[in-house]
Amino acid sequence: MNLKIFSIRTKKLCGLCVQNKINSNNTLKSSEYFYFWKMKFAFIINPYSAKKNYQPFLESLSKRVENPLYIVSKSLEDTDDFIRRVWNDVDIFVAVGGDGTISVVAQKLINTSKILAVFPAGSGNGFSNETNFNKNISRLLEKIEEKKFREIDTFMVNEHFSINVSGTGFDGKVVKEFEKTSRGFKNYIKVSIQTFFNYKPIKIKFLEEDHKQYNGKYLMLNIANTRQFGNNAYIAPMASKSDGLVDLVLVKKFPLTYSPFFAFRMFTKRLKDDDYVTYLPVSEIEFKVNTKTWHIDGEFKKIKSPIHIKVLPKSLRILV
Predict the structure, then answer these.
(1) Which residue range forms the structural domain that includes residue 231?
(2) H/E element holding 220?
(3) Which residues does 64 contact at the CB level (< 8 Å), separation at least 6?
(4) Which residues of 148-187 are buried (b: 16+ CB within 10 A; e: fewer)?
(5) pLDDT, tens digit, for every residue of 292-320?
(6) End residue of a domain, out of 119, 154, 189
(7) Which of 46, 72, 272, 314 could cross-link 151 (Cys pair, CB 3.0–4.6 Å)?
(8) Which residue has the higher pLDDT, 163 or 122?
(9) Residue 320 lies in a domain
């Protein structure tokens, strides 16, 4: 594998000094070793986020940071290898992308002294919205310089790591179909409407006696560490990312006439327990579901039952 090394010379903060032989094609062979001085932060950029338009971010960064360290990551292997190589020299890892990208980076920082920061560049940016990151790069750099952080919870869905909202059923199917489009909020709404009319409810069977009363058919089941999917759609308005719990959200299939009320309540933070929605705050829970179609932080996954949900309390440091 070859890693591309990018060096931008500009005026303000010093991000990186590099000493090594770089090949004529501007790549560094994996077998070569390189050293960094004064390195405190690094950027991991998903080139497929933000409609593949990450150049404005780099241009803006180049005006503010001298010699920043970053990678335009084309694969999970790229990201893993990059983090491993710079680990001892970096305090703060900045994920540039959507919730899926953030989750990939965050998983490498769990239960360590490293700090996660975010520059939102996804379709929904749910986690960014919930952790007060926006597209103001100057403010992001100010936060990096201050280096203040807080510890938040994360959770597991079997062997899959999650930071925001994950789920199965209707929204799992929507994410699967959404990934076939060019993304964007309009496409998400279009796919959601098309899927709703034809989707058959999933069957949930809880394994613990205390929760067997909730066995039944549901439109969807979500596990919410934060309050929203993204785009300010609040599926769990009372969820907290630092209370040691996730909100298990059970939604029964509702009639078309209820749809406007559900949507209005979701976008105004007013969803609550009613005839169609049930909230179960849990730190750990097991159940079976008759589908393998899931989304983990908005990324489609196939996950086989039984399902084991477990919160990892205060497991991630995040820049504030």
Answers:
(1) 160-312
(2) strand 220-224
(3) 10, 11, 12, 13, 137, 138, 141
(4) ebeebbbbbbeebbbbbbbbbbbbbbbbbbbeeeebeeee
(5) 999 999 899 999 999 999 999 999 999 99
(6) 154
(7) 314
(8) 163
(9) no
Question: Can you tell me whether residue 306 is helix, strand or coil?
Answer: coil
Q: How far is CA 4 from CA 34, 70, 117, 190, in A?
A: 13, 9, 22, 38
Whether 161 contacts 310, CB under 8 Å: no
- pLDDT tens-place string over residues 199-256: 889 999 999 999 999 999 999 999 999 999 988 999 999 999 999 999 999 999 999 8
- How far apart are the C-alpha atoms of 220 and 203, rounded to whole Å? 9
Residues 58, 99, single domain; the answer is yes
Q: What share of the chain is helix, strand, coil (3-state, %, to 5)?
A: 30, 35, 40
166 & 287 share domain: yes
Distances (CA, A) of 287 to 1, 132, 236: 41, 33, 20
pLDDT at 39: 42
Does 92 score more than 90 pLDDT? Answer: yes
Based on the domain organization, do 86 and 229 belong to the same domain? no
Q: Are 41 and 92 in contact (CB under 8 A)?
A: yes
Q: What is the number of alpha carbons within 13 Å of residue 279 lying toward its C-beta?
A: 17
Give the Cα separation of 267 and 169 in Å (integer): 20
Place of tokens 């560490």: 225
The answer to whether position 319 is within a domain reads: no
In a domain, 306, yes or no: yes
For residue 216, give the CATH number of its domain. 2.60.200.40
Examine the pLDDT at 26 and tell me if it is beyond 60. no
Rounded to two decimals, the pTM is: 0.83
> C-alpha angle with apex 290: 186 to 199, nearest 5 degrees?
35
